[in-house]
Amino acid sequence: MEDVCGRERKITSSTTSNRKQGEENPAGNRNEAGDGAAVCSDGAEHQPDEEDNNTLSLISWNVDGLDEEEQPERARGLCSYLISHSPDVVLLQELIQPYTLFVKKHLADNYAFIEGGKENYFIGMMLKKSRITLLDSEIVTYPTTSMMRNLLVAQVLFKGQKFCLMTSHFESCKANAGERMRQLRLVMKRMAEVPDDVTALFGGDTNLRDAEVGKVGLPDCVCDVWEQLGEPEHCRYTWDTHANTNNDHRYKSRFRFDRLYLRRAAGDGVPQLEPDSMALIGMEKLKCGCYTSDHWGIYCTLSAQ
Description:
With about 300 residues, the protein is of the alpha+beta class. The chain has helices at about 70-85, 95-105, 175-190, 210-215, 225-230; strands spanning about 40, 45, 55-60, 90-95, 110-115, 120-130, 130-140, 150-160, 160-170, 200-205, 220-225, 240, 255, 260-265, 275-280, 295-305. The strands form 4 sheets. The chain has a 6-stranded mixed sheet with strand order 5-6-4-3-16-15. Strands 7-8-9-10-14-11 form a 6-stranded mixed sheet. Helix 3 (about 175-190) packs across helix 4 (about 210-215). The chain is globular.
């Protein structure tokens, strides 16, 4: 969410206001908890197939927990997407406790949860128990943040291979570019320092503008997954106030705020992880007339080569 700066917002588990009921989904599709299939940004339905031992699936999503409007329905929408896509790894930003408790209630049998905080809003990870083994985790503080932002790091095993998973919610708003770039430098340093036999994978709401990434630069060993896939236009903009009407923004904008970064393992005999596909999710309105979040989520698959 881009407007957390300059405003204090009440965090609640229920809403006191309602959107106009019965608002039609422009694409003619609705997503409800338990629907089974969810529609990706290219219009194709995703149905979970039998788990591919060589493919890692991931969802990264800022779920806009700070927005009070239709919170219960949006939380159900989030669970519906997680159930239908059944990703191995889920990286979430802007969580609040009611959201976390709701998701745990519905998905705790299948996922282990790691939280990057307890108070106000925070980041978190979900790891599929049947596929991912958690070894260790830590919370890394950003020394100069003014928005309670941090980095959540987890050391895991996936099919016997070591992975370092990371998520974060970088400083919001255009005026905070300096802090945002400091946070990017810290993350890139951490990714570059991961041992050679470990694959590092970061996903989160970076709030980055392309010019800011250009100023910082990425280490040679780190790639932007969207760029690696050929910069597909259908999943360029994860923040799009032209299409997403959850908040009434006076000035319309499109940005690729939500990003995935990969640092492949380089050790002898260690499988190389290669990006396969990327799609946006959350682009269907719920029955209440809202989208699940003011951000689209990213669904990505990567395969060991």
